[in-house]
Amino acid sequence: MQILVGVLLGVHIAQFVLRRVEETFCEGEYYTCQATSFAIGTASLIFAAVLHHYEHLRSRSASAVLFFYWLFSGFAGVVQLRSFILSRLYQDDLVVFVLQCVFVAITLVQFILENVAKPGTYYSSLDEDAVSPEETANILSRLTFQWMWPLMKLGAQKDLTMDDLWHLRTVDTAVVTGGKFQANWQNELLRKKPSLLRAIIATYGAYFGSAAFFKAGQDALAFVQPIFLKKMMEFAASWSDRKTKDQSIEQGFIIAVMMLLTAITQTMVLHQYFHICLTSSMQIRSAIVAAVYRKSLSLSNISRQASTVGEIVNLQSVDAGRISDLCSYLHISWSGPFQIALAIYFLHQTLGPSIFAGVGIMILMIPVNALLATTSRDLNKVQMKNKDTRTKLMDELLNGIKVIKLYAWERPFLKKVFAAREAELHTLRKLGYLSAVQSFTWACTPFLVSFASFSVYTLVSEEPLTSSKVFVCISLFNLLQFPLSVFPSVITAMIEASVSFNRLYNFLRNEELDKNAVIREPAHFQPLTPDAPRIDIRNGTFRWTQDGANTLDHINMQVRDGELFAIVGSVGAGKSSIISALLGEMYKSAGEVHLRGSVAYVPQNAWIMNATLKENILFGLPYDEEYYKKVVAACGLTSDLEMLPGGDSVEIGERGINLSGGQKQRVSVARAVYSRADVYLFDDPLSAVDAHVGRHIFENVLGPKGVLKNKARVLVTHGIHFLPETDTVMLVQDGTVAESGSYQSLMDHEGSLFNLIRDFGQAKHNGSDEENDDVEAEGLAQQSAGQSRRPSHASLSRRSSKGSIKASVSEAVNKDAVVANNALILKEATAAGSVSWDVYTTYAKACGKPIVVIYLIIAIASQCLSVAQNVYLADWANDNDRQTHGANEGDRRAILKRLAIYGTLGVSYSVTIIGQVIFAWVACGIRSARILHTDMLESVIRFPQSFFDTTPLGRVINRFSKDQYTVDEVLPRTFQGYFRTLFAVLSVVAVNVLGSPLFIIFVVPLGFLYAYFQRFYLSTSRELKRLDSTSRSPIYAHFSETLGGVSTIRAYQQEGRFITVNENKIDTNMRAYYPSISSNRWLAVRLELIGSLIVFGSAFFSVATIAIKGHIPASIVGLMITYSLNVTQSLNWMVRQSCEIETNIVAVERIKEYIDLPREAPYEIPSETPPREWPQVGRIDFINYSTRYRTGLELVLKDISFSVKGREKIGIVGRTGAGKSSLTLSLFRLIERVSGKIVVDDVDIANLGLFDLRSRLSIIPQDPVLFSGTIRDNLDPFGVYDDQAIWRALEDSSLKAHVTRMEKGLASVVLQGGENFSVGQRQLICLARALLRKTNILVLDEATAAVDVETDTIIQKTIREEFKDCTILTIAHRINTVMDSDRILLLDRGRIAEFDSPANLLRDKKSMFYSLAKEAGQVA
């Protein structure tokens, strides 16, 4: 191309030289002009050559400068060549003429080459195919969004997947946008008054501000069309007067072409403006979501309590969305007044001072709109609080769903959620009525402005109101209508965004962890002397809240390399708080804390990621095969890996649901060991593993001969039999150090530790028999997702059976699904193809079909009235066109009559607008919102527990937040907008066809073109919307998972890695979102081109009709073109709204999916209600009973039969995977039978409703789950018992003293997840629930796993005394606790191996129970 430029330069110089030689140039100023032109032309060609050179080497896309340069050069050359031809230069100077022809030809070739795609570079990247074609698109492709064509075409051919989408541009990635925002926000924090808005402006202001140039150009061009309309009407009027006809037909066609060119230019400019705004919006949303995630990793304990998971999810979804959505409208804040000023200027030119009557109306409407906007802001604040409350309740309900089902507490929780929902709908109804009033002002204001202006003009002016004045004014009023209608919405959007800004600002300003609480010295620190401590606390005083009472007082401890430091104490003494203090999770009131070197942390409740088992152990570190195998063996995981399908590549479900409690804890320990840290903090990890496994881990990991023998180790434990093998023991009581020293010295001292061991331990000779202090790995797999003060989450899929684990993971979630690559958590299902009509029917039924019909009738009537107004004006103006004099008295009466009719039509139209909004938002919208939410919630709470085991909770929360928000607020608005624009487009076609029948010839092919574009758009946009929706869920799921393990992440200093993972998930979502918004622009440009053609057709066929018939009334021309000018926007919005309906109706589809999923057995069966006193005896019979966790998995209980007598105490024992927990879950019917039956007091439980069954049984589960509310709510959610009974239950569970000390007693607040109680205290509250309920059958499912031996003794004593007349099934966690059972049921691989009294089983030294007892040291 540089060569061609060189040739052009030669031709250009040759032309100048020839003319100079031939002396064809004139002297004087003309010569100076020619010389200047030559110099400029030469310089521009040289510049073009240089630009071509650099563009070829450094740019992947064609230059916009060169594109327009060659376009305009070619155009200028063609014009000059035309002049040469007209002047017959080829006869006088053939050489110059030929040179000019060559110049034009080469210029046009250059222009064509500039539009040809550039070849690949020499150094193409490996993923070149995934690069967005936008990166290489030329200016024409960018203006028309033609670079989207490959994806649009692909979307019409197949259902799109994420693999079909291009990568984001680098500037749009979360790491770039979020990094810039974070840097500017940090700079703001250094100011006295930091501003979030200032940080956003500093980050995105320049790019977003560039849209203002395009917006200003579009606004100016919009007011050019009324000028051409006036010219066209003057042209039509000149032909109506048969005598004058002073304008040629060509002039009419020229006006039509100019209207087309203006409309096309306006379209190109407008959508560049939109694209910049929406790209800015995307970048801002991406940065906000990343910032919220980053902030959540550094929140202090009190800040985490102030901002629940649900509230933060709302920040990421709703608030970030509102702030980013504001970008689409923000420029209207200056553009609106600019358009209003232009409209008033041109109206004044047309109607004169009369227009100020309309201006007065506009000024009067300002305070009205301000009042409406203020009310809207206040209601939106209330609504956001309502959403937060409901989302928080849903998060809590889903996290505790296992316990809710076991206790049959569904109804009180549903009642709480429904109460929150009703408050939300009540506010939504107010917003609906407010929207109706706002829509009335939107419809009424332009009418009142025109009515007032026309009234004053007709009554005051001497000149009649002619067609040219009427329709030019109407077109200007239509232009005025947009800023007047949108401007209040922009104000509302700004107010809503300001609410979200404040919420986000407050969150980002929330208190963070005190970075000075713990001085962490670098990981490469090495002690100068062997005595230098790795952990050093001196006079440390700590508290959980900044203003609260001290939790720990005067703590002193030093731990050195090679030292094992044990911390013991009773429940609530402060053991786990010391670990939290070391991690910097608490506020430091006094003292110093030093941690020297890297830290590894094993929380009391293992935190497991939704990733492979290997990834959970490596935790971001490089894979060292040799050391990895050593760690796995030391942590007792070798046999587990051999049995898991895929070994360590098996995917672990959310919250570790497909691992037993012991396996999760061993993975957590393995993670710590593999990290090769300098300091190890173990918060009672051995309480969740088998006794022999606990011993194995202690000996191979923690103990004097373990892998970590040379490391500094802190072990919080209830296993007092390990204490003799520790280096230092510290006994904690009431937050202070009661004793500290070596084990032997403390025993010699005969203090508190000596008394504890003497009373409960018999440690001297019973070192091994106290291994039973450790809990079997039979625990519910759904252990706590957090730390010692994080809520524990329950789940069905205990999956402690190794065989069952294998089945659980290798099989599908259901018989129709296949899980590849050992995955348990399936990717979220996405429907393919167009949305089923069944979904629309579901939504219509939810709205109420009669209400929908009434709405449609009102909408049609409204459009008819709108057309009637303008047709009446056209008739009035047509009469006036024939008048040449002012109005007399009789005419004035006619004018008043005309005004009265016009006013009546306008008021009637405005009233129907109110009816439309009320029926769409209030009648249809709220009814559908209530019905769909109720049906989904009632369905979800009745899902089988297996659903929650295989579905991330973030996915479910997404349906109750984002999808429900779409149903609540987006769909009603979208349907209303669609029908309004549909009827508007139909009215345009009708008016034009009636005015000029030839128009039908033009509109038919445009209709086919419209359908052609829509076909590509609908299928592609629908799939992109689905991909956007499904790729958003992992962001929330990852966020919820991160919050559950935030202490672990911080302890390992892995915040950076998790931030990167979050950014990648955001980018994945934006990969779907960016093409989605770009596809909207692709469609809009094409539809507006069709709209431009309709305007052109309307003008062209008006001129053609004049040419054929000789005349056409100017009022008809005005009416046709005025309506056509509006069709561009209406057509665009109609298709956009139709697609918005199809993409947003996906929310109904997703909600319907949950409504239609299989549920549990009936909650109540009235005909099968058991007697009130049932079960009176407590007899239980298992008869040939078999069950599995889900369809397609292996049986976990296989044809078992046994009977339990009334009031009998049964101990259930067995090794890991025997099926002990499956037995109890079968009794509560959390898993259903495959064959056989369970009979309780002669009643087959399969025939009962689940409420009748579960409410008559009691269980103390392994996972102590508490819910936010009060202590009373957590013990008696139905409000059945009086205070005396509740206090008695608390007293019997050893909690009365603690609750009494709390400020409000039974009304004291329980934080979400019970975070203001220790794990042991939570377990005691679960005991109090059972004591209060006191049914005749009690199940203890490893109920004392998290308590010390002293508390365990109290619990066991309470159970024996209070439940002596009950049938008790106890899953053994300490063998000695079931030694006094009437009989022992020993399970092995889902079958009954032994069932007899403990004495008889122990006599048989070949029995399996004897082997277990021997391992636990119960027999010699």
Write a short abstract of this structure.
The chain has 1420 residues and is an alpha/beta fold. It is built from 45 helices and 22 strands.
How would you describe the overall organization of this protein?
Helix 8 crosses helix 9, helix 15 runs antiparallel to helix 17 and helix 40 crosses helix 42. A six-stranded mixed sheet has the order 6-7-8-4-9-10, with helices on both faces. A six-stranded mixed sheet has the order 16-19-20-13-21-22. Strands 1-5-2-3 form a four-stranded mixed sheet, with helices on one face. The chain has 45 helices and 22 strands. The chain has 1420 residues and is α/β, with parallel strands linked by helices. It is 61% helix and 9% strand. About 5% of the residues have low confidence. The longest helix is centred in the C-terminal third of the chain and has 55 residues. It is elongated and about 125 Å long.
